[in-house]
Design goal:
Helices cover about 45% and strands about 20% of the residues. The protein has 11 helices and 9 strands. Strand 1 (about 25-30) and strand 2 (about 35-45) form a beta hairpin.
């Protein structure tokens, strides 16, 4: 059984905005029943281009329902231009976190929103499945193209075939395409390298940089859930921290440590950093 946090369970057990808007101004469908996940999103949009209401119907797991519910809450009140900038990571932030193996549900929500916006701007209802993405089909089990793999990798800074599987299901069937997926990623990041690790001339500068990343990048995300973080010590590449507030008692705090705190420090400072919790 997946280890879901309280926010995910709340959106799953008591989902918001379930249903369909009559005479909707925009609609979008993504996924397909054969893949096990499908989502239909309808929007009511004011003459000024503001999303007044958003409703969803989904066939999928708890993560799919929770992601869809969070998405509808997120976009209500946004302008179309603001909604067009929503990413799957924005959905995950509302939920606190999702298991890595379920990140494709947040991607499905983002794509449903993009499909609905395209419908609003272009006129014809947009129904997307994986085969709508231009390019060469790499995963025949789920119909995922190389174009979609590159787009998801760029959006979420993914470097391994396993991560792509978690975010798109590609490679999750027979597994015969995993080598091809990795080749696509290797080529992508060879041509579009990520940020270089920050060179630290001394321990003082290193600690200051870690503290800066915690305050600007990590702390705001934790505070949204009533949590917090304090830097305790830095020993070599080991960053010792103390979780505060709700994070300190959260049963999934180990996931926060690895998938949020450590990932951000590695992204902005050095891929060699490891995070340890001090009780």
């Amino acid at each position: 059984m997946w280890d879901y946090n309280d926010k995910v369970m709340e959106h799953f057990i008591n989902p918001k905005n379930v249903g369909e808007i009559d005479e909707a101004d925009a609609e979008g469908e993504v996924g397909n029943m054969s893949c096990g996940d499908a989502l239909r999103l309808t929007l009511k949009i004011s003459p000024e281009g503001i999303i007044e209401d958003a409703r969803f119907k989904t066939f999928g797991c708890a993560s799919a329902i929770a992601s869809s519910s969070a998405l509808t809450e997120l976009v209500k009140g946004m302008t179309i231009d603001e909604a067009d900038k929503v990413t799957n990571q924005d959905i995950v932030k509302i939920l606190g976190e999702l298991p890595e193996e379920k990140m494709h549900c947040s991607v499905m929500g983002m794509e449903a929103l993009q499909a609905a916006i395209a419908n609003y701007r272009g006129g014809a209802p947009v129904k997307q499945d994986d085969n709508n993405h231009e390019g060469r089909i790499v995963c025949h089990c789920f119909g995922v193209t190389d174009t979609k793999i590159r787009a998801i990798a760029r959006q979420n800074n993914l470097r391994s075939a396993e991560e792509i599987r978690n975010y798109s299901k590609a490679g999750g069937g027979c597994g015969g395409c995993l080598d091809s997926i990795q080749e696509i990623l290797d080529g992508l990041w060879r041509d579009e390298p990520g940020p270089e690790p920050v060179e630290m001339p001394g321990i003082v500068q290193k600690v200051l940089k870690i503290q800066e990343v915690i305050e600007k990048e990590i702390q705001p995300m934790l505070e949204q859930d009533g949590g917090g973080l304090a830097l305790v010590d830095v020993v070599g590449n080991i960053v010792k921290v103390k979780l505060k507030g709700r994070c300190a008692v959260c049963p999934t705090s180990h996931l926060t440590m690895k998938h949020t705190i450590e990932q951000k420090l590695r992204e902005f400072i050095s891929p060699e950093l490891e995070v340890e919790e001090v009780k």
